[in-house]
Design goal:
alpha/beta, 260 residues, four-stranded antiparallel β-sheet, six-stranded mixed β-sheet
Length: 260
C-alpha cells in the first residue's frame, strides 16, 4: 500500500530562518501519528505543510503521490481537514452552523441536503456537542470550541485529519474521548496526525510518534521505541524520567514528579 504522504528532504525557510530542515517522512492510512517537541521545534509548520498551507523552500511533499502544491484547494479540502488552535468568527454563528461549515467542500450549491445534516449530526455526536447546537460559538469555553471545531472537521469527511493542539483546552474526560474518537477513525482507514505537548496522551493512543527538535526529526517510532530518557532529555532539554508499568504505555515523569 502506498503511503498517503511522502515528504522528501522537505524544508521551510522564512526570513533566512530555517523552520523545517530536510524532513523525510512517510505517513499511511490507518495511523494515528502524534508530533511532539518543544516550542519552536516546527510542529505546527510541519502540520501546515501537510495541509498545503505552507510552501516548501526545498524538497518535496506528496499527497497520494501528487505534489501538494499542484492540488486545488477544493480537492485538498475534500481529502484533508485541519483543526487549528483558535478560530475567530466575526458573526454569531451557532454551533450547528459552524459544524455545517465543514460540509462546504461537498456542496455544489449554497443549501444543505439530507446527507449534509446526517454528517453534521454524526460529527456532533462523536464530539459530545449536540447539547451545544444552538449556542453562539463565540460564547463557548475554549474546550467547547475545540470540540466543535473537531466536529466540523469530521463533518468534512476527509481521509486525513490534522489537529494542532486540539486537546490543549480539553478536560481529562474530553481529552480521552477525543483520542478515542481519533483512534476509531484510524480503524476506518483514516490517517490522523495530531500535535500535542502531552507525551502520556500520545503514548496511550499513537501508533507512531514523530519527535522534532529545531526543525529536524530527532526520532520516529512507536511510543515504546521512543521511551528513552536520554533521547527525551536531549529533545526537550530537561531531565525527564521514564516509568514502565507492565501492561501500560511508558509514562514520562517531569522534573520533580514523585516516582511511584
Amino acid at each position: 500500500m502506498k503511503p498517503v504522504y511522502q515528504l522528501r528532504q522537505a524544508s521551510v525557510v522564512k526570513n533566512a530562518q530555517p523552520l523545517l530542515e530536510n524532513i523525510d517522512l512517510e505517513l499511511s492510512a490507518g495511523e494515528l501519528v502524534v508530533i511532539l517537541g518543544p516550542n519552536g521545534a516546527g510542529k505546527s509548520t510541519l502540520l501546515r505543510v501537510l495541509a498545503g498551507l505552507e510552501q516548501l523552500s526545498a524538497g518535496a511533499a506528496l499527497l497520494s503521490s501528487e505534489p501538494i502544491a499542484a492540488i486545488s484547494r477544493r480537492t485538498m479540502a475534500r481529502q484533508v481537514a485541519m483543526v487549528e488552535p483558535t478560530v475567530a468568527l466575526p458573526f454569531g454563528y451557532s454551533v450547528e452552523q459552524v459544524v455545517m461549515m465543514g460540509r462546504a467542500p461537498h456542496m455544489d450549491a449554497w443549501f444543505e441536503g439530507s446527507e449534509d445534516w446526517a454528517q453534521v449530526e454524526a460529527a456532533m455526536r462523536v464530539m459530545d456537542c449536540e447539547n451545544l447546537r444552538n449556542r453562539d460559538f463565540r460564547n463557548l469555553s475554549s474546550g467547547e470550541m475545540q470540540r466543535v471545531l473537531v466536529a466540523s472537521a469530521l463533518a468534512q469527511q476527509p481521509c486525513v485529519l490534522l489537529l494542532d493542539e486540539s486537546a490543549a483546552f480539553l478536560d481529562v474526560r474530553h481529552q480521552m474521548e477525543l483520542f478515542e474518537a481519533l483512534h476509531r477513525l484510524t480503524s476506518q482507514g483514516y490517517l490522523v496526525v495530531a500535535v500535542t505537548h502531552d507525551w502520556n496522551l500520545a503514548a496511550r493512543w499513537a501508533s507512531r510518534i514523530v519527535l522534532l527538535k529545531s526543525g529536524r526529526i530527532a526520532a520516529v517510532g512507536s511510543p515504546t521505541e521512543l521511551a528513552s530518557a536520554p533521547l527525551l532529555n536531549e529533545v526537550f532539554g530537561v531531565p525527564l524520567e521514564v516509568l514502565e508499568i507492565k501492561g501500560r504505555p511508558p509514562i514520562v515523569l517531569q522534573p520533580g514528579d514523585p516516582a511511584r
